[in-house]
Amino acid sequence: MDAASMTWSPVTMRWPERATQWMGGLSAAKDLATGELASTAQRLAGLEGLASTNPGPVGDAARNAVEAGRTALAQQLGQVPSCLVVTPFQSGIGQGKGYQRYLSAPNVLEHLAKKLEDATDAGRPVGPQYALSILFLGTRLEQLASGLSRFNALLPIGDLVRTERRAQYLLKLESDKWEIPGAGPLPRWQGLPLERCTVVKAAKQSMAGQLAVLEGYAADSSPLGDLAALAARKAAQQQERDQQLADLKGLLGGGNADVSIRARLIGPGNATELRQELLSGDAPGHEWVQCAGLLLVGTKEGLSFVRELVGL
After folding, report:
1. Which of 3, 125, 145, 179 could form a disulfide with 82 if both were Cys (CB 3.0 to 4.6 A apart)?
2. Is the pLDDT of residue 80 over 90?
3. Which domain holds residue 151?
4. What is the SS3 assignment for 261?
5. CB atoms inside a 10 Å sphere around CB 87
6. pLDDT of 203 over the 80 cut
7. Would 158 be classed as within a structural domain?
8. Does 156 reside within a domain?
9. Can you state the angle between helices 223-252 and 27-45, rounded to 10 degrees?
């Protein structure tokens, strides 16, 4: 066991370059498709009754790109790691009474380690594997909710999303209980419910059929014009998706280390070895009283995407 595997590193959320490098192989086909869409309107305008069209060079390139992309996706997402979440609000996990629940960082690790050897759980991972553990640390509910919201924005996991919402609701409950609601005197103004009038109902039913016929005439257009509009929409959609991906990469670029989220990769080993390694090392202490934990167990390739995402 090396010293690096015993260290809990602050998480720096970033774009997983190595795990998504296969996307670069699609750029040539995407450029061809973009150029083909841009010229589709001109080619459609010149059809003038011709029965056949030439799809251009994008067909063969697209088929090769699709095959390569689907193969890369299957390799990247086909080895799904096992996932375990520990939060203060789970039954029998957190300490405290009523709505006020607490769970310190060492106790999170104890629960995660215990589940590695839980023979009653049919979904327990078996065999030599790696484990990626992530701790969400906080001394107050708002700190825990803030750390979870940053992580859930990129990788939402059901139990973590519910924990974030519950922490936010408890914070709102704590602040709202000191506010006295104000109520004005009755009666109050409101809109006239014309949709309940029998005359309006009858008129709408009588005119519905006529309006549908008129809309059909109004929507009548040229098939070539429809195809040109469809090509324009596809080009605009592709540009929008490319911009969204670029914005996400820019958001993850140059991020700062987040000390309230710690991550650690351990393994390889079986359940017993992973448990011993998880509990070893210099872990966050009991001063972190509002914590949650995530443990991912799988192959090194299956964990590569999340591992890069958290900056390990």
Report:
1. 125
2. no
3. 4-12+80-173+256-309
4. strand
5. 25
6. no
7. yes
8. yes
9. 150
Separation of CA 261 from chain center: 17
Instruction: Provide the mean pLDDT of the chain.
Output: 82
pLDDT at 148: 94
Specify the range with the lowest mean pLDDT, choosing from 69-83, 209-223, 297-311: 209-223
Question: What's 21's DSSP letter?
Answer: G
**What is the pTM for the complete model shown?**
0.73
Per residue in 213-260, pLDDT (tens digit) is: 667 666 666 677 777 788 888 888 988 888 888 887 777 777 778 889
User: How many residues comprise the chain?
Assistant: 312
**In the Cβ-directed half-sphere of 179, how many Cα atoms lie within 13 Å?**
8
Cα–Cα distance list, 176 to 82, 169, 181, 290, 307 (Å): 39, 10, 9, 21, 39
Q: Within 10 A of 191 (CB to CB), how many other CB atoms are there?
A: 5
Phi, psi of 276 (to 5 degrees): -65, -40
The amino acid at residue 118 is D
Which amino acid, one-letter code, is at 203?
A
Q: How many domains does the chain fold into?
A: 1
